[in-house]
Amino acid sequence: MSLYDLNKNMVPPDEIARQREYAALVRTVLSARFDDPPRAFVHTYGCQGNVSDGERMKGMLHACGFAFTDVREEADFVLYNTCAVREHAEDRVFGNVGALKPLKNRRRHMKIALCGCMVQQPRVTERLQRSYPFVDLVFGTHVTHRLPEFLYRLYCTGEKVYEILQSDGVIAEQIPVSRDSSFKAWVPIMYGCNNFCSYCIVPYVRGRERSRSTEAILDEVRTVVQAGYKEITLLGQNVNSYKGDVNFSGLLRRINEIPGEFIVRFMTSHPKDCTRELIDTIAACEKVERHLHLPFQSGNDRILREMNRHYDREKYLSLVRYAKEKIPDLLLTSDVIVGFPGETAEEFEDTLSLADTVGFSSLFLFIFSPRAGTKAACMPDETDRAEKVRRFQALEKLQAQHSARIAEAMIGRSFRVLCEEESRPGLLTGKTSGSMTVEFPGEADRIGSFVTVRVTERAGWTLKGEIEP
Ligand code: SAM
Ligand code: SF4
Ligand code: F3S
Description:
Layout: H1 3-6, H2 13-33, E1 39-44, H3 48-63, E2 67-68, E3 77-82, H4 87-98, H5 100-106, E4 111-116, H6 122-131, E5 137-139, H7 147-157, E6 161-163, E7 184-188, E8 190-191, H8 202-206, E9 210-211, H9 214-226, E10 231-235, H10 248-256, E11 263-267, H11 276-284, E12 291-293, H12 301-306, H13 313-326, E13 331-338, H14 345-358, E14 362-367, H15 385-410, E15 414-424, E16 427-431, E17 437-441, E18 450-459, E19 462-467
Parallel strand pairs: 1-2, 1-3, 3-4, 4-5, 5-6, 7-10, 10-11, 12-13, 13-14, 17-19
Antiparallel strand pairs: 8-9, 15-16, 15-18, 16-17, 18-19
Bound molecules: S-adenosylmethionine, iron/sulfur cluster and FE3-S4 cluster.
């Protein structure tokens, strides 16, 4: 039985083959038009899922004959892979695209393309068509696998291409991927989201939740491990609701059995679907790192109901208690929204107290940003910006104390660390199992390999250490 028969969301293999043919045609067209391979500048905003999509787009661009550049001014093709999660993310894209106009006037052959979550919204595409006529190609999240076809149309007809499909979404396998790192690999396990948290745009721009087949995921993991990748991060908006031949815990166990020296991370876990079975699985799997990113968003039950999160404070805290009991060295991180419509100062106190009770190693804090089309965007919101900023800063201050305390407790302990990058000449950084950054003396040729680092001190909440012989 083929993967297509198993899952109605799958893009049929003959469609993928058709895109491969388009890629070959684009290659021919471009090699006749450019002396050297044309250079693409690809910039991705937003979450790791979007970064992973961007790597697949680069894979397709490579198959179409493009080389890559980090210098936008030298590019022949500019692609912005956008995010819509907060207003600020959208403003940055409009600003950057606007700045391309004079550049395009100087480099008339340069093509400008936009894709990703932001352009999936009709009001954005309308604005692009109206006010940014120099943008050549715009394509939505459900048609990314057709990039070679769009490039063919763009370069052969010279016409603008706008392809936004409103659909529940698809799964496209066998797309070439050009990974940014040679030792850290993103592996999507599912796409879309069904949760409709009242503040969130993701379900509207990413379609319904759909899981990749277990075999396709295991194949991808085996391929990257054989290619020498050392860190695999499994991605999905709610990995705990993965539905393949096995559930998410089963998937982790199957990946853990794959031979090789590598570590496994995953994100994001949703508290409503995060189970004790998952905690037991992390405890049992030696390749799965001791870190759980478990966004709680608010510590107040009324706000959690208004957010449509489907768990309450006590359920969250009991999960955390179980996790800490089973995995004493587990570190927890979380996302929080401050200033949700109608949040009172007392309700915000519940968020502070939850953060204080759990003791996260770090928190990602966001001030509520109304997203058109979501339920929360229509809720009355009387709290002024200054008060929201005050709450944000209060939480930030509390978190700094917890981060410092947790960092302090690491001093004297040793961790296996994957050397990730050179922060300064002769100094490397990597992450502990719990995902805390540590800096230590070491040569760049160690990047991409594991070392054991003993933590010797902390600077703020960054750890400093040294490699053990
Ligand atoms: N699926 C993940 C989950 O449920 O935890 C999170 C995905 S979202 C891309 C990342 C974070 O952005 C969320 O956890 C939330 O804290 C924040 N976020 C989403 N919508 C937001 C909004 N309208 N305003 C402010 N922050 C928002
Ligand atoms: Fe957004 Fe909620 Fe889905 Fe996360 S689970 S992507 S916050 S709707
Ligand atoms: Fe942004 Fe889309 Fe991710 S809205 S956070 S890029 S799923």
